[in-house]
Design brief:
single chain, alpha/beta, D-Maltodextrin-Binding Protein, domain 2, Alpha-Beta Plaits, 3 domains, 6-stranded mixed beta sheet, 5-stranded mixed beta sheet, elongated, lyase, phenylalanine biosynthesis, ACT_dom
């Protein structure tokens, strides 16, 4: 059976996303970093990889954008939206006053910063590779350490939920992308309307180029769902743009718009046309 790589160990939000996307059709393969998931795709060790791309409260996971920019053989073939609900995990009977350090993934710590400053301002924060890694570490240590993670991490690592639902925003969603070497071909024409197209571009350095690009989309009624710039890493002030839009390249208006957009770019790459997750959250 083919494998799907995700940020492990067992009990992460990424595992939840991988399970929800792949069901029982793939073997779950926990990986230690986002970089190693890309590596697994390139070397064919895994067929699919799942990575968080953006969160409704904390925004983009920039490392994942940078990896997409640097690995032009990798495509986006799908997405999954996961509701993120964090708990403070610790040893049974630990009081908040006893907690000296809180371990978690940087996104989880950021998503709970209001809770932490209200109830745990005395504690040190320690960033680790993932929420489940934090849970696994503290399960081996004394009661002065706590982790932020989900229900699965709590049961898997035999930890108590010292406080539940501690994220600052109840409506906390993360959009995960599913990557592969080749994207799945969508056959059903009716699926085009529920598709998303992701692009990477670097644009001609002239006044109004970005405006002109957006105009080509606007003129054809194409909805932009994300635009983000990252340093091109060539010289100061040079950027590449990540654009997500509603629609599929096989739709005439999208095809036409992108043909016009391409003329305004130095580099133009479609990283994927894929089905949007139907869960309405972003
Ligand atoms: O650490 C995890 O569980 C991950 O999968 C990364 C992450 C962390 C916080 C919110 C969403 C994803």
């Amino acid at each position: 059976m083919k494998k799907i790589g995700y940020l492990g160990p067992e009990g992460t939000y990424s595992e939840k996303a991988a399970k929800s996307y792949a069901g029982l059709s793939y073997i779950l393969k926990p990986c230690t970093t986002f970089d190693s998931i890309f590596e697994g795709i390139i070397t064919n060790e895994v067929a699919l990889g799942v990575l968080p791309l953006e969160n409704s409260c904390e925004g983009t996971v920039v490392r994942v954008l940078d990896l997409l920019a640097r690995n032009d053989k990798v495509k986006i073939t799908g997405e999954v939206v996961v509701h993120v609900c964090h708990h403070l995990l610790g040893h049974p009977g630990t009081s908040l006053a006893e907690v000296q350090s809180i371990l978690s993934h940087p996104q989880a710590l950021a998503q709970c910063s209001g809770f932490i400053s209200k109830y745990l301002s005395h504690a040190k924060l320690q960033e680790v590779e993932s929420t489940a890694r934090a849970a696994s570490i503290i399960s081996e240590c004394g009661p002065s350490l706590a982790a932020i993670g989900n229900d699965e991490a709590s049961s898997r690592y035999n930890l108590s939920k010292l406080m539940t639902n501690i994220q600052d925003m109840a409506e906390n969603y993360t959009r995960f992308i599913v990557i592969a070497k080749e994207q799945q071909i969508m056959v059903e024409t009716e699926e085009y309307a529920n598709s998303r197209t992701s692009l990477i571009l670097s644009i001609v350095d002239q006044p109004g180029t970005l405006y002109e690009i957006l105009k080509q989309l606007a003129l054809r009624g194409i909805n932009l769902t994300k635009i983000e710039s990252r340093p091109a890493r060539t010289r100061l002030g040079e950027y590449i743009f990540f654009i997500d839009l509603d629609g599929h390249i096989n739709q005439p208006q999208v095809c036409e718009a992108l043909a016009e957009v391409k003329k305004l770019t130095v580099e133009f790459r479609i990283i994927g046309c894929y089905a949007k997750d139907k869960e309405k959250s972003l």
